[in-house]
Amino acid sequence: MKYLIEKINDLKIEKRAFINGRFVNALDAEIIKKKSSADQRDISGIASCKQEDVNIAVKSARATVQSRIWMNKEPQDKKKIFLNLADLMKEYTEELALLDTLETGRCYKNYFEDSIPKAIQVVRWFAESVDKFYDHAIVPRKNTFATITRGPIGVVGLITPWNDPLVPAMWKMIPALLTGNSVIIKPAEQSSFSILKVAGLAQQAGVPDGVLNVVPGIGEVAGKALALHNNVDGLFFTGSAQVGKKILEYSGRSNMKKVGLECGGKSAFIVSEKCSQLERAAKVLAQNIFYNQGQICSAPSRAIIANKIKDKFVDLVRKEMEKYIPKNPFDPDSRVGCVVSLEQKEKIEKFIQSGIESGAVIYRCKNEGDAYQEGYSVVPVIFDQVAPDSLIAQEEIFGPVLCVFGFDSINDAISLANNSRYGLAGAIWTNDLNEAYQVSRLLEAGIVHVNSYGEDDNCVPFGGFKESGIGKDKSIYAFDEYTNSKTTWMHFDTV
Ligand code: NAD
Question: What is the pTM (predicted TM-score) of this model?
Answer without folding.
Answer: 0.97
